[in-house]
Amino acid sequence: MTVVGAGVIGLSCAWRAATAGWRVTVLDPAPASGASWVAGGMLAPLTEAWPGEERLLELGVESLRRWPDFAAELGGAGLRTEGTVVVATGAGDRAELDSLAEHLARTGRAVERLTGRALRRLEPALGPEVRGGLSVPGDLSVDNRELLGALREAAEQAGARFVSQAVTCVLDDGARVTGVRCAGGHDRPAEVVLVAAGAHSSALHPALRGLVRPVKGEILRLAHRPGAFPPPRRTVRALVDGRPVYMVPREGGGLVVGATQTEVGFDTDTTVAGVRDLLRDAERVLPGIAEYALVESAAGLRPSCADNLPLVDAVGPDGLLVATGHGRNGMLLAPVTADTVLGLLREVEEVA
Ligand code: GLY
Q1: Which of 147, 243, 246, 278 has most ligand 1 atoms within 8 Å of CB, for mutation?
Q2: Are 247 and 282 in contact (CB under 8 A)?
Q3: How far apart are CA 161 and CA 347, in angstroms?
Q4: Domain 84-137+213-304 listed as CATH 3.30.9.10
Q5: Is 258 in the pocket of ligand 1 (CB under 6 A)?
Q6: Ligand 1 atom nearest 259 alpha carbon
Q7: How close is the Cα of 328 to the center of ligand 1, in Å?
Q8: Whose CA is nearest to atom 1 of ligand 1?
Q9: Residue 321's pLDDT band (boundaries 50, 70, 90)?
């Protein structure tokens, strides 16, 4: 089996497949880079929920249920279990969070509403502009970079082989997959190919054309400095005059601040406006970050499908599998995706 793409989805699938006995080769010119490297790492089905996206909510909740075992098998993988608060500044933001709470209650997932004062008791780093919000202890986070390292190591230990090559297309004879073509024109035979190349997946086979598009997200990494106010322990998500911003703590005083959301093709520049907006809104929620170091700015391309659901299926000729389209939820959906792909592989085995 050949896995095209070594982001969180490709690595998770490669690990699970190698553990299940498949001979796995992973092709990626820069493993563990791209959107997975840039990501904030929220595992947050409830606080990412939108009315009309109930299937995504169900899938996210199911994947989150599998996360503790998934992380434990990887030796921890940077999973944090402190939970999440979602906070509002203005009256419009509070109304928006009320709607989210009502929506979640309708789906049987009540969340606790808190005043600004109660929120500051939980997280003293929250500033005076925070007027109220929600406590969502079940929405977790993971250190995406620690996770990627753990996944690669586990995949290699299970026998997966990594080759630093870019794939330009999946080859088939019309009915069956025969291999992949690598950059430079070199063909590699394969009977089963899993395309897990994120936003680039659509370009790899005609059956995938137009199914996935890139949605750019800019993100910042800050670091606490001696004397500055300590960072929050929980993930803090906020609405600031209608604009969403999140701040995800890391071990050792790091804080990931994200994210912009724009559709500008395959552009991965970080813009002055993106950095400015994120810092302005984050500082209104956590005023202490003004004294932190700004250590990194980066942009990733979320692979997004029209219905905002991931695309994890067999498509096109026999032997072509795809796992992409995870949008804002790649980290969250990794366990359920890897399990689904294992199921698809079993079907392939039965047919062969
Ligand atoms: N998961 C958050 C984001 O995509 O920005």
Answers
A1: 246
A2: yes
A3: 23
A4: yes
A5: yes
A6: 5
A7: 4
A8: 328
A9: very high
Give yes or no for a contact between 241 and 92, defined as CB atoms under 8 angstroms apart.
Answer: yes
Residue 273 has pLDDT above 90, yes or no: yes
Which residue is listed with tokens 């959301």? 261
Tell me, in angstroms, the distance from the centre of ligand 1 to residue 176's CA: 36
| Secondary structure letter of residue 294 according to DSSP | E
3-class DSSP state of 114: strand
Structure confidence by residue, pLDDT tens digits, 36-68: 999 999 999 999 998 899 999 999 999 999 999
Check if the beta carbon of residue 301 is closer than 8 Å to that of residue 36.
no
Peptide bond between residue 259 and the one before it cis (omega within 30 degrees of 0): yes
The pLDDT tens digits of the residues spanning 110-138 come to: 899 999 999 999 999 999 999 999 999 99
Residues near 59 by beta carbon (within 8 Å), at least 6 away in sequence: 45, 309, 310, 333, 336
Q: How far is the CA of 281 from the centre of ligand 1 (A)?
A: 16
DSSP string, 169-218: EEEE-SSBEEEEEETTS-EEE-S-EEE--GGGGGGG-GGGTTS-EEEEEE
Mutation to probe ligand 1, out of 302, 304, 308, 332 (largest number of atoms < 8 A from CB)? 302
CATH superfamily of 1-80+141-212+307-352: FAD/NAD(P)-binding domain (3.50.50.60)
- Listed by start position, the domains of the chain span 1-80+141-212+307-352, 84-137+213-304
Residue 327 Cβ inside 6 Å of ligand 1? The answer reads: no
Mean pLDDT, rounded, for 331-340? 98
What totals of helices (H) and strands (E) does the chain contain, helices first? 8, 20
Atom of ligand 1 minimally distant from the CA of 258:
5
Atom 4 of ligand 1, residue of closest alpha carbon: 328
